Amino acid sequence: MADYARPPGTADILPEQAGAWQFVEAKAREVCERYHFREVRTPVFEHTEVFERGVGDTTDIVQKEMYTFTDRGGRSMTLRPEGTAGVVRAFNEEKLYGGNLPGKFFYLGPMFRYEKKQAGRYRQFHQYGVEVIGSDDARADAEVIELADCYLKELGVDKYRLELNSVGCPTCRAAHKALLLAHLAPVKEELCADCQTRFDKNPLRILDCKIDGKRPEVMSAPMIVDHLCADCAAHFAGVKGYLDALRVTYELVPTMVRGLDYYTRTAFEFVGTELGAQSTIIGGGRYNGLVGMLGGPDLPGVGFAGGLERLLMTLAEDKVAALSADTLDAYVIVMGEAANRLAVQVMQRLRAYGLKVDADYAGRGFKAQLKQADRFSAPVAVIIGDDEAAAKSVTLRDMVSKEQRLVTIEHLLEDKDR
Predict the structure, then answer these.
(1) Number of folded domains in the chain?
(2) CATH number, residue 384
(3) How far is the C-alpha of 367 from the C-alpha of 233, rounded, in Å?
(4) pLDDT (average), residues 309-331
(5) Which distant-in-sequence residues (6+ apart) come within 8 Å of 407 by Cβ?
(6) Can you give the residue range of the structural domain that contains 356?
(7) pTM value?
(8) What's the average model confidence in pLDDT over 245-266?
(9) What is the pLDDT of residue 276?
């Protein structure tokens, strides 16, 4: 028997939720425009190498979660699991590095990962993200973080905290890696399979492992933030100084490393304090080697991404309901065949004026149509019967006071302003 249910890990966004989605998307665009970030739209699938190279072959995303397929030309393609690698690929391919730097971009769209089923996790999910490419200035890091903080505040989200760390650069990571390997070597065989793989390739990510991260041997390991080189230490001090100047409150979390291999220096997460296990609502950091890694010039970058599904989970239920309320500015009630032609003309005129208008198409009686007007919270019912049609007029009914008055078609919109 055919299965017509939606695929596991996906969701239908129905009209009852769409208003809230439009709100968080519109607010993202509005905030980004104020910070002079411009939208970029990349394909939902890329050559697999973009993510293997950009995201990192030791990450869970590449090893376990990507939707990869071979196209009809024999090429390996992958549905995008995150947004940054695709933006950087477009930046390089379109030679945007030849323009005015830094480039400041934002994106909105669906991403795809074969995730385990959990509340707040989907296999098709939606992200909002920003990228600044071409500046190593600590002010860029602070601006990206402050933009995220501003966005959350303007959404009305208040139950979150900002966690901050520095994961250094290749220079200080090499020295820290030697210390970390020496510290963890005695318990290597006791670590989970993923961490044993990470041990040689990227041991820093062991600190953030959901299985081994709480082991005493891991929690007592040397932290990268305590072994930063002079340049990284100065950069991190700059980021913290600018955040202090911007009055953005943060908490230093030395074990945070983020889940993608391209991060360098600044790493941060905005964590919802009432979301349970899947609590990160926005996360990001600096990725100074990624542009060159994907075939472009050696340019630094910094950015973040946030899951819209989790952002929506942080909004109050009454706010979500209000944003998606099914309301009208006017409801047209039609009685009689002769009124139908005039009714469609009236609706066209009202809609052209910018009003939300609808009418009955189910053949309901007069009282049932009045109930429909109430159901949509329309403040005005526009009543058109055969008599009104003959006089090229309509009856306006105030749905609260129940008062009615006859208005000619020519004066309909003029009367609306009174």
Answers:
(1) 2
(2) 3.40.50.800
(3) 73
(4) 87
(5) 393, 394, 395, 396, 415
(6) 326-416
(7) 0.87
(8) 87
(9) 64
